[in-house]
Amino acid sequence: MFLNKILRAADHPYLMGSGGRKANNALSSMQGLTVKSLKHHVALQPLFIIMGAGVTFVCAYVGRLAMKSTDVNWSKKKDPVECMQVYENKQFKMFNVGGVDHSNLSTIRNEPVYR
After folding, report:
1. Mean pLDDT of 90-112
2. pLDDT digits 0-9 by tens, 35-78
3. How far, in Å, CA of 32 to CA of 47, rounded?
4. Fewest C-beta in 10 Å: which of 20, 40, 74, 100?
């Protein structure tokens, strides 16, 4: 009986039709989500630009972390030393604040050889 009431309520006219909740909550009727209404609401334009730039930067940074950092291993090699030799004498951080030359860093700091 209770389930029957819920199923009948889902097809009630206040959800659909003109003036219904679905029609009022459509993306085309919300202000600021169409180009026409965004031109009218000038205060929303910087918000969309800043949020769009932020989302783009985050996606690019997460993609870069997946491709270039040592935290993700895309190769299926079982030996961890063999996988990490790709990163030997390479800079994989985004910013080199200290200005360190990474081309011969492992020979300078006398890195141990595990093989």
Report:
1. 72
2. 888 888 888 889 989 999 999 999 999 998 888 777 777 888 88
3. 10
4. 74
DSSP string, 11-62: T-TTTSSTTSHHHHTSTTTSTTSSHHHHHH-TTHHHHHHHHHHHHHHHHHHH
Higher pLDDT, 42 or 104: 42
**114/56 Cα distance (integer angstroms):** 40
Residue 96 CB neighbours (<10 A): 10
Q: Structure tokens of 14?
A: 């206040």
Cα–Cα distance, 102 to 90 (Å, whole number): 6
Residue among 26, 7, 6 at smallest CA distance from 16: 26
Tokens of 92: 């994989």
Q: Is 89 in a helix, a strand, or coil?
A: coil
